[in-house]
C-alpha cells in the first residue's frame, strides 16, 4: 500500500495517474495497479466531490446529532450504528468517546425535515436513550477543502 498515492488522491481524487507517477517516482502502470489493489481490498472506499452547496440552487440543511445509546450485549454499538447508517438522510456515523456515543451527520431539505427525522426515526430506535441536535450554520472546511471566501485581513483572519 503506497501512502503517497493515498495522500495525493485524498487531496485531489481526479489527479491523473501520470501526474501521480511523476510525484511518486513510480511508473504509470505501477500507480494504476496500486490504486486497483487498494480499491479491491477496501482501502479506497470511494471518490467524493466537495460541493459548496451554498453556491447552488439546491437548498438543504445539515445537522450533527448526538446519540446516547445503551449497547446490547455481544453487539456493542454496531447494531444501532448500522441501522442509523442505512437512512438516506445520514451522511456519516461515528462512534465517539465522551458524553455521547454516536455522532450522526444528517442532511435534509429543511430544519423541520431534520427535526422530524430525529423525532420519528432516530429517537425511536430501541437502544437510543437520548438525542441532541446541532444545526450547521455555515461550513468553513469540509474533507480537507477550505470553503472560506472573502478578504483576509493583516492577521490572516477572513472577513466574510
Written description of the protein model:
There is one protein chain. This protein is an alpha+beta fold. The chain is built from five helices and eight strands, in the order H-H-H-E-H-E-E-H-E-E-E-E-E. The protein has helices at 3-11, 17-24, 28-40, 78-85, 111-122; strands at residues 61-69, 90-95, 102-108, 128-135, 141-142, 145-146, 151-152, 158-159. The strands form three sheets. The chain has a four-stranded antiparallel sheet with strand order 2-3-1-4. Strand 7 and strand 8 (158-159) form a beta hairpin. The radius of gyration is 20 Å and the shape is globular. The mean pLDDT is 88.
Concise synopsis of the structure shown:
α2 (17-24) packs across α3. The protein is built from five helices and eight strands. It has helices at 3-11, 17-24, 28-40, 78-85, 111-122, and strands at 61-69, 90-95, 102-108, 128-135, 141-142, 145-146, 151-152, 158-159.
Question: What is the fold's blueprint, element by element?
Answer:
Elements: H1 3-11, H2 17-24, H3 28-40, E1 61-69, H4 78-85, E2 90-95, E3 102-108, H5 111-122, E4 128-135, E5 141-142, E6 145-146, E7 151-152, E8 158-159
Antiparallel strand pairs: 1-3, 1-4, 2-3, 5-6, 7-8
Helix pairs in contact: 2-3
Provide the low-confidence segments as ranges.
none
Query: What order do the SSEs take from the amino end to the carboxyl end, as H and E?
Result: HHHEHEEHEEEEE
| Gap between N and C termini | 41 Å
Structural class: alpha+beta
The portion of residues forming beta strands comes to 15-25%
DSSP summary, beta strand count:
8
Rg, Cα atoms, Å:
20 Å
Side-by-side strand order of the widest sheet: 2-3-1-4
Query: Could you give a short account of the major beta sheet?
Result: 4 strands, antiparallel
Shape: globular
Please bin the fraction of helical residues: 25-40%
The total count of helices amounts to 5
Mean pLDDT metric: 88
Amino acid at each position: 500500500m503506497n501512502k503517497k498515492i493515498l495522500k495525493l488522491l485524498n487531496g485531489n481524487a481526479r489527479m491523473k495517474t501520470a501526474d501521480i507517477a511523476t510525484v511518486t517516482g513510480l511508473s504509470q502502470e505501477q500507480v494504476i495497479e496500486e490504486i486497483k489493489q487498494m480499491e479491491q481490498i477496501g482501502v479506497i472506499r470511494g471518490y467524493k466531490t466537495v460541493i459548496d452547496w451554498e453556491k447552488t440552487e439546491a437548498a438543504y440543511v445539515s445537522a450533527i446529532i448526538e446519540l446516547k445509546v445503551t449497547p446490547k450485549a455481544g453487539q456493542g454499538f454496531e447494531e444501532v450504528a448500522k441501522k442509523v447508517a442505512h437512512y438516506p438522510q445520514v451522511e456519516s456515523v461515528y462512534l465517539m468517546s465522551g458524553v455521547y456515543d454516536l455522532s450522526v451527520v444528517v442532511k435534509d431539505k429543511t430544519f423541520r425535515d431534520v427535526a422530524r427525522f430525529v423525532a420519528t426515526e432516530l429517537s425511536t430506535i430501541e437502544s437510543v436513550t437520548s438525542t441532541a441536535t446541532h444545526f450547521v450554520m455555515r461550513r468553513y472546511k469540509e474533507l480537507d477543502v477550505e470553503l472560506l471566501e472573502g478578504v483576509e485581513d493583516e492577521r490572516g483572519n477572513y472577513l466574510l
